[in-house]
Amino acid sequence: ARSQVTELVLDNCRSSNGEIEGLNDSFKELQFLSMANVELTSLAKLPTLSKLRKLELSDNVISGGLEVLAERCPNLTYLNLSGNKIKDLGTVEALQNLKNLKSLDLFNCEITNLEDYRDSIFELLQQITYLDGFDQEDNEAPDSEDDDDEGDEDDDDDENEAGPPGEYEEEDDEDDGASDLGEGEEEEEVGLSYLMKEEIQDEEDDDDYVEGGDEEEEAEGVRGEKRKREPEDEGEEEED
């Protein structure tokens, strides 16, 4: 039944007289609606979709009448109007009443050629976070525009903090081995020595392996490598 549908994709269908036949108020539960490239000239016949959160309208010929959106889809959080005939800020001003709108796309609309386009839109629509996929500080929007935005952002942060390849993981993997040494410096160098593993594996680990005699053989390779690499590692770190 239509009343159960939550997502509807009508891309590349053909609208007549500004509407798509069969799209009406009966879609009570609709949360995601995509009507890309359907030759839509106006939103005048958009049905009332009170639960709609994401609306894709890219590559149509809409030039105005955006106030309809706030009346009929008041809970929109994401709106894509890229590739339409939107030319001026006055047209976009009608989106001020979409209080929950977080993300707006206007790629390939003439309005993007205006001087200070981005600043003007952010000033006009105080509620939005992302314009054309980036916020005011040029941070990219997470892939998902759903309510778990915060979770996505946290993931991004972790990646950013990972530092040079190898180091981040090494802290976890070799933590026990490194802490037995009791020397903070060597603990940091594990990452680099680990990356060079293939080159040094065959060198004389036994001679270097002194302190941890009781440990299992498994740790032996790692410790030997660390002692081997120590002088060079320090040199490399200074360069960085």
Automatic annotation (TrEMBL):
Segments of this protein annotated with the region Disordered: 133-240
Molecular function per GO: histone binding; phosphatase inhibitor activity
GO biological process, one term: regulation of apoptotic process
Record field: compositional bias (Basic and acidic residues): 220-231
The keyword Cytoplasm belongs to this UniProt entry's keyword annotation: yes
Cell compartment(s), UniProt: Cytoplasm; Nucleus
Keywords noted in UniProt: Chaperone, Chromatin regulator, Cytoplasm, Leucine-rich repeat, Nucleus, Repeat
Composition-biased stretches (Acidic residues): 134-190, 200-219
Keyword Repeat carried by entry: yes
SUPFAM superfamilies named among the record's database cross-references: L domain-like
GO cellular component, one term: nucleus
PROSITE patterns in the cross-refs: LRR
Main localization category: cytoplasm
Family according to the record: Belongs to the ANP32 family.
Record function comment: Multifunctional protein that is involved in the regulation of many processes.
The name this protein goes by in its record: Acidic leucine-rich nuclear phosphoprotein 32 family member
The organism of origin for this protein: Ptilonorhynchus violaceus
